[in-house]
Write a structure and sequence with these properties.
With about 325 residues, the protein is of the alpha/beta class. Helices cover about 45% and strands about 20% of the residues. The protein is built from twelve helices and ten strands. Strand 5, helix 6 and strand 6 form a beta-alpha-beta unit. The radius of gyration is 21 Å and the shape is globular.
């Protein structure tokens, strides 16, 4: 019987010179088919919205379709793990996020992948603050009034996030610690279901990325009490930052394009250049800014440095809250 070898096994058998030549050849012909961009969250959330916006423009630049595929689960770990174990050929990418790469893994007792070693982090797309929102008919008209209600009824007021480990969850924990209030956290598997329940009256408040929440806030369906950015957001100039009300409370969600480790360097460089060009284009800058996002377009080196910074910033919050996800 003739033994069948996988593409990866064949590559491992090549001498160094042959590997170099093959890598260069792959890069020259890349991409030869459609690229899959895994979004490890349900449709409709902040990451999904920006991923589809980016995928369309990146596909135009690469002259091949970039197809978004949602793989939610385990707080974004499921879809991210799928990419960690995919072939390192540049055809399966992930929209990595804070919950799946940094600081989310610091909260988990075990991880199916190493956030650093199992990926090559190609380009950081941008960051966006979370908004702290209530229903339009909520009695609290300001963040100060909401905090007063929380202090008057400790443990009886809840807030939701898109899941344990997300930036909204961490923002809530930091707010609780700093403002010394007792709110009950209700985790969801994504932004869409949480917003639905907030609108339906099942929730008191929600930490959600402005990318998703902008439409609801501008239409008057939700009331934006504060944002978690260090500065006020241009699209909501009247909304204070949380740090204006509770000094020291700030934070932002982020996402970037990452690929499996051992993806050829030439392909990584091509993807990095194209993602940066798309994010830095005037129309994309305007579109992302209108959504309440800060475009960043960091390359691989800066992206990795950013990941390390996030871990250093949130590690004390996680330890103080004794957060542990089994």
């Amino acid at each position: 019987m003739v033994k069948q070898f996988t593409r990866r096994q064949l590559l491992q058998c090549l001498p160094a010179s042959g590997m170099t030549a093959l890598t260069a050849s792959l890069a020259q012909t890349y991409p030869a088919r459609s690229i899959k961009l895994i979004v490890p969250f349900p449709p409709g959330g902040s990451t999904d919205v920006v991923s589809r916006l980016l995928a369309q423009r990146l596909g135009d630049a690469l002259k091949q379709p970039v197809v978004v595929e949602n793989k939610p689960g385990v707080g974004s770990v499921l879809g991210t793990d799928f990419v960690a174990k995919a072939a390192p050929d540049g055809y399966t990418l992930v929209m990595a996020a804070n919950s799946s790469i940094a600081p989310g893994p610091l909260m988990r007792s075990s991880m199916p992948y190493d956030p650093i070693k199992d990926f090559v982090h190609i380009a950081l797309v941008g960051s966006f603050p979370n908004g702290f929102m209530v229903r339009a008919d909520h009695p609290a008209k300001t963040m100060q009034e909401f905090l007063a209600l929380a202090r008057a009824k400790p443990g009886s007021i809840n807030y939701a996030s898109a899941g344990i480990g997300t930036s909204g969850f961490l923002s809530g924990e930091l707010l609780k610690q700093t403002a010394q209030i007792n709110m009950v956290h209700i985790p969801y598997k994504g932004s869409g279901p949480a917003i639905t329940d907030l609108l339906g009256g099942q929730l008191d408040a929600l930490f959600e990325g402005l990318v998703t929440a902008t439409g609801y806030a501008k239409s008057g369906k939700l009331r934006l009490l504060a944002v978690t950015s260090e500065r006020r957001v241009k699209s909501f100039p009247d909304a204070p930052t949380l740090s204006e009300v509770v000094p020291g409370v700030s934070g932002a969600a982020w996402f970037g394009i990452s690929a499996p480790a051992k993806t050829p360097a030439a392909i990584v460089e091509r993807l990095q250049a194209e993602v940066q060009a798309v994010v830095q284009s005037p129309d994309m800058q305007t579109r992302l800014t209108d959504l309440g996002m800060t475009p960043l377009a960091y390359g691989s080196v800066e992206y990795l440095g950013f990941i390390n910074h996030e871990n250093r910033k949130w590690s004390p919050v996680i330890k103080t809250s004794n957060i542990r996800i089994e």
